[in-house]
Specification:
This protein has 259 residues and is of the alpha/beta class. Helix content is 39%, strand content 20%. Belongs to the universal stress protein A family.
Amino acid sequence: MQAQTAPILLATDLSARSDRALDRALMLAAQAQTSLVALHIMEPTNAPLTTPVWRRLSADHKQLAERRLAEDLADAPVPTSAVVRSGETVPLIRETADHFGCSLIVTGIARESTLSRLLLGTTVERLARQASQPVLVVKARPRKPYRDVVVATDFSEGSRQALVAALRVAGDAPLTLFHAYDVPFGKDAPEDAVVRSFYNDAAQKARAFLDGTPELAGRPAPELVLESGQPETLLSEYVFNRRCDLVVTGTHGLTVKIQ
């Protein structure tokens, strides 16, 4: 992972599953020789009855959350700060990340989800669309630094931001650039020459995209994977078959990293 001075923000609900995000955030902060800011957002007083009582807003519960954060960070190998706030989740995460000048937001997920479900209609998606920083979503327990990283791209500027973010997080791990392109079908299947022309066009755009990313200078060129079909379906299949450590996506300014 490239050295950086900006801290990393961990957004945690203090659940058992969030421990995975905590472990990964600490690992990344240690690799980058930077500090970690751990943020917990208290639920409002009108939170659903299913919300644990210690996560609802009150002075006592705020102190309890602060104590739990302090306990979680007690043995951290990097400097840490614990922040407990109350209010709307996404705006407060954004505000805290900007206030501390964070370079990355790390969070977990409340439940298991497929890749396509996670990318659509979730708090994580809203956060990634609105935050100035890339968002790393941790699903699996981290056991080692990232080693097999896939960057999904549509060659937009948002995709370039995702690629640069992947370089910062993945360090020297090999990168694969994945692009799914569309070949229009009529009543009959297109001729081989037509299919080949769409592939060649995608390959040309991929090379131009990589050439236009100066952050790749001095690094091995990413492996190119170009497939015809629906991006969500093909990406999910590729990640499952490849057993990738990290998936990075970015479109129209959206940068989301999903483990």
